[in-house]
Amino acid sequence: MKLYKLPIVLYEPSEDTEYKYMAEVPALPGCRVWGDSVGEALDYIRNMAETFVDSYLDRETPLPEEVELLLYEPSGTVIHGEIIVTA
């Protein structure tokens, strides 16, 4: 199993996002979701990104080059990540 560390963009609710949080993975064209909360949008985008990557692999279509460059190979048992926290 390969791991990819994909940057996301999270937008606050606005008229443009139908007053929902919107998250997208710029490296995967069309990979965007909407959620009623930050947590929901983050859960949805993780699932959608996995679905996008799986669909490329299932069709034996090369992943976008930008995604291939984001292949993450952890050293040891420590995996680093990023989260956004609301306060």
Automatic annotation (TrEMBL):
Residues 12-68 form the HicB-like antitoxin of toxin-antitoxin system domain. It comes from the Eukaryota. This is HicB-like antitoxin of toxin-antitoxin system domain-containing protein. It comes from Geodia barretti (Barrett's horny sponge).
